[in-house]
Amino acid sequence: MKLFVLGCGTSTGVPRIGNDWGACDPKDARNRRTRVSIIVESDGGERVLVDTSPDLRHQLLAANIDRIDAVCWTHDHADHCHGIDDLRALRYGRGGPIPAYGTEETVRRLRQRFGYVFAGQHGYSTICNIETLDRLKLLCGMRLSWCRMPHGPAQSTAYRFDAAGKSIGYATDFSEIRNDLVDLFTNLDVLVVDCLRREPHPTHAHLSMSLDLAAQTQSKRVILTHLDKSMDYTSLVEETPSHVYPAYDGMVIAL
Question: Residue 7 — left, alpha, or beta (φ > 0 → left; ψ -120 to 50 → alpha)?
């Protein structure tokens, strides 16, 4: 399996508009963060994109990715779905629409806001066929498991991908550790986890919560994502355990 971290920043990215780097060193390229999105690749080379960030076109060009085989959404907040139109270029040359998935609520909201993506219009082809996750067990040669997470008053979806004896978990945008999340992620090879800042936040995990989830699940390698402008890369490396790493845009992990 392979993990591509396309983007690892919070909803405003780093730096914020106005060239606001906060505590992040602007000389370290790993601190320049676009909005969160990942690709998980199976041992057979099939790729699942998780979320369509507003920076998706730039991310795919930077990673030299010109093909995906499916897309899943964690939820419908703007920083996770407003790059959806960039899927048009990934639809070209395919025999049919891109398979797409989300929870029932996410599917409903995406259909409302981006109807043309899922139905086509004015002679343009349907870009994605979207379905709920309810009965999905296998995707692109990987076993797929998921659960809902509290994201303040909203909900987000955590995903686990298993193939060839390896596992990758993805939990962004959550504000509470519940038993079903711990059960989902037990004994992961790689956990990619929400870590907005050091101080507690009403809708996101902070550093202590992220490390707590990693410890409860006994994850072998932990990647911190959804990082804001207070989370300087080098500072985080110095204060976290040796198996914990801040994400950076363009990070690739092969298992």
Answer: beta
Going residue by residue through the chain, which has 255 residues, state the pLDDT in tens, using 9 for 90 and above. Answer: 999 999 999 999 999 999 999 999 999 999 999 999 999 999 999 999 999 999 999 999 999 999 999 999 999 999 999 999 999 999 998 989 999 999 999 999 999 999 999 997 776 889 999 999 998 999 999 999 999 999 999 999 999 999 999 999 999 999 999 999 999 999 999 999 999 999 999 999 999 999 999 999 999 999 999 999 999 999 999 999 999 999 999 999 999
Q: How far is CA 15 from CA 33, 58, 223, 230, 246, in A?
A: 7, 16, 20, 10, 16
Nearest to 173 by CA among 210, 212, 144: 210
Structure tokens at 78: 């703007």
Strand spans (E) along 91-165: 98-102, 128-132, 138-139, 142-151, 154-163
